[in-house]
Amino acid sequence: MKRDIGTFDIHSDLFTNVTLHRQAGETDIIRKYHIKQLHKGSVGAMLCCIWIDPPYTADPPARMIEIMSSACAELRGAADIAEFARSSADIEQICAAGKLAILLGMEGLSGLRGQVDFLDVLYAWGVRHAMLTWNEVNVFAHGASCHEDKGLTELGVKALARMEELGMLIDVSHANERTFWDVYEHTEKPFIASHSNAYARCSHARNLKDDQIKALAQRGGVIGMNAWPEFIDAEAPSVECLADHVDHIRALVGIDHIACGFDFCDYLTSDTLDSFTSSDVVTEGLESAADIPALFAVLGARGYSDADLEKIAHGNMMRVVRTVIG
Asked: Which GO BP terms apply (predicted)?
């Protein structure tokens, strides 16, 4: 069945779930647990990250290899419904064939142990995106958990330069504020915040302040709207509240810099979730990929045109992919 791209979800921890199931002896995880929800949400493309998930953070290189191995094994068995993409043309062709296009990324580079040259290996393996850190302080950068005025390290600057040379997307979603501005200073191409919202609407360290959003937009990047409740509203997160974030960003920089980076966690285990959340509150109306149409319905009711919604769904991110990756 031929499909268009539909929604391009630019942040997913799908392969964390795949790895945990495969380690328990299961196979065909995407088909069993995910593809129906993704189809219901009209998701045609995803940026799926290799994330060193708690409680596996003691040995990042080992966990990185485990997840990448599981991802490759899973895609071999799911070749009729999903496929890795390495370029914008790949994404379009895979979606046209009716399959899920998966762009592979890194949610932090702790698994590299400071070896910048290993980025070339990741690129050869198909990785086209990376964040320097997942909240933590590492040899490359200071993440969102660090509230000091410290940002990139010398290794971080070298890593950014190599990523731009290779044609990899640079992502600041888990960077602290100083790291964000250092990335802005030491890069030339568009970069993204794959799963962050507007700090002005919800003052969480993972969200971007107005001057950051303006800088990212000036560079031609996008910010992916995140469905995680703690980044939407401190008291009553909902799909309507996330639409308020979209309204704020559109008023600030226009429609061309908004994307979808939902970061759905409905399939993560309590061992993992307990490491970074202190609440069991969910986002009303937007709890899983199956609920994605609800956000577009709210935005449509607020007067967003079909062209606007298409840009948010995939058009803006595809522009960045074409520019940076090719």
From this structure: proteolysis
Element (H, E) at 202: none
**Rounded to whole angstroms, how far apart are CA atoms 325 and 312?**
19
Annotated domain spans of the chain? 7-325
7-325 under CATH 3.20.20.140, yes or no: yes
- Helices (H) and strands (E) in the chain — how many of each? 14, 8
Within 8 A by CB and 6+ apart from 326, the residues are: 87, 88, 167
Q: For 135-152, how does the pLDDT look when each residue is reduced to its tens digit (9 = 90+)?
A: 999 999 999 998 889 999
- Please state the separation of Cα 276 from the chain's center in Å: 17
Residues 6+ apart with CB under 8 A from 227: 242, 262, 263, 264, 283, 286, 287
Q: Are 160 and 187 in contact (CB under 8 A)?
A: yes
Tell me the three state secondary structure of residue 171. strand
pLDDT tens-digit readout, 58-102: 999 999 999 999 999 999 999 999 999 999 999 999 999 999 999
Distance CA 275, CA 293 (A): 30
